[in-house]
Every structure is written in C-alpha cells, then in structure tokens.
Write a structure and sequence with these properties.
This is Metalloprotease TldD/E C-terminal domain-containing protein. Pfam families: PmbA_TldD_3rd. By secondary structure, this protein is mainly β. The protein has a domain of about 90 residues. The chain contains 3 helices and 9 strands, in the order H-E-E-H-E-E-E-E-H-E-E-E. The strands form 3 sheets. Strands 3, 4, 5, 6 and 9 form a 5-stranded antiparallel β-sheet that branches. A hairpin with a 4-residue loop joins strand 3 and strand 4. The longest helix is centred in the N-terminal third of the chain and has 7 residues.
Length: about 150
C-alpha cells in the first residue's frame, strides 16, 4: 500500500491527486470513493496442507458482507460458517454466523500461506449505507492468517 484512494471531489478537498476510485450506482446518484482491484493472487500451498498446519483455528466459508474503515485501517466482515480445526483436523463443530474484525496492516502481515486454488464470482455488491449499490466481483485463494473472530 503506497497511498490512499479517492474520487475527484475528495481529491479536491484533500489537495491531492484523484485515483479514479469514484463509483456510483447510476448517473443520477452521488459518486462515492470505493476500492477497486483488491486481489490476492493464488500461492503454492494446498488447502489440505494449510488445514493440517493449524493447531487451533477455523475454516471460514461464505463471507457475505463486510465493511472497512479506511481512515483507521479497520475491517469487519460477516462470515456464514466457521468450521473448528484442532490439531490439523476438523472437529465437526460449526459456528454461525461469525464476525471477523481487525486492523488491516496486522492482518496482511499475519498471512503465512496462500492456496493454489482460486475462486471468483461476480455476484457481489458494494453498498454505501442503505441506498448505493454497485455490482462487484469477489473471491480469491484460501488464505491462512490471524484475525479476531466473534
């Protein structure tokens, strides 16, 4: 990460260069600064090896919504299913729903494995409050990292 993102209006207010991150649902709606092209390329690790390397943790499935606090580098995401892992094996316990939260730089530094598998979908939306929805794609490889769950 080298710089923040902003649309043309935010760039004028901040006295910086715009990064082309203004998006809106349609022309009659307000443009908001939104992230683009956030993507993790697949690594070389097998999912089975990632799971077997965990002494205690969770395999998270179906992230359904999330939000970020770009000013304070916070992240929060709702996940539908968390499968418990102990000593590299699934215990059979499933928790739902789960909220993951953390400080983005710490999360990025904690990544220790990336799967060679990658799944992408074009069925997501980026919303601003209750009124602005822009279609987005999501997905990527499996990632082994540390983050707070609740």
């Amino acid at each position: 990460m080298k710089t923040g993102i902003c649309d043309a209006q935010a760039a004028m207010a901040l006295g910086t260069k715009p990064t082309g991150n203004g998006r809106r649902e349609k022309n009659s709606h307000k443009a908001y600064t939104r992230m683009t092209n956030t993507f993790f390329e697949p690594g070389t690790d097998k999912v089975e090896d990632m799971i077997s390397s965990i002494s205690y943790g969770f395999y998270l499935e179906n992230a359904s919504s999330g939000m970020e606090d770009p000013k304070n580098w916070g992240i929060q995401c709702l996940v539908d299913i968390a499968r418990e892992i102990k000593d590299g094996k699934f215990t059979g316990k499933v928790f739902s729903p789960i909220v993951l939260t953390g400080y983005v730089p710490d999360l990025l530094k904690s990544i220790s494995m990336m799967s060679d598998e990658c799944e992408l979908a074009g069925t997501g939306y980026c919303g601003k409050g209750h009124k602005e929805w822009v279609k987005v794609s999501d997905g990527g490889p499996y990632i082994k990292a540390r983050i707070r769950l609740g």
